[in-house]
Amino acid sequence: MTPRRLLLVALGGTVGTALRLAVALSIPDAGGFPTATLAANLVGALLIGVLAARLPGSSDMRVFLGTGVLGGFTTYSAFAVGTLQLWAETPLLAASYAALTLVLGVAAAVLGMRVGRRREAL
Questions:
Q1: Which of 17, 34, 69, 93 could join 12 in a cystine, given CB atoms 3.0 to 4.6 angstroms apart?
Q2: How many domains does the chain fold into?
Q3: Where do the coiled-coil regions begin and end (predicted)?
Q4: For residue 47, is it within any domain?
């Protein structure tokens, strides 16, 4: 890790967390269900898949966008807290939310990798 890459991650993380806040402010939680967190994590997983397919792992742009922006945009901590808060009131909904996030997140990343894969000319 070089100082340049650390700065890229920090700048990207600042952008990503600001974007996540914008999503949280524009998508209200539905009856305690963490809708904004689910949306941010699924969109982030899709975009991370696209980046993984398009950019080499060692590029500065992937460090900035993937680790920084999308790392700041997606949020495991809010997912964990949201799950625990749901668990206190509705354990079945909490388990469903956790499973849904995991399954749809992986599916979104796979879709992103397929969308991002370079196509061969016919």
A1: 69
A2: 1
A3: none
A4: yes
In a domain, 78, yes or no: yes
Per-run averaged pLDDT (10 residues), the chain, 122 residues: 94 98 94 94 98 90 96 96 96 97 98 90 56
Q: Is residue 93 part of a domain?
A: yes
> Using one digit for the tens of pLDDT, what is the confidence trace for 68-98?
999 999 999 999 999 999 999 999 999 999 9
* Annotated binding-site residue? 12: no
DSSP 120: P
DSSP state of 33: B
Which residues are 33's β-sheet partners? 30
Structural domain span for residue 91: 3-116
The confidence score (pLDDT) of residue 47 equals 98
> Does residue 122 lie in a domain region?
no
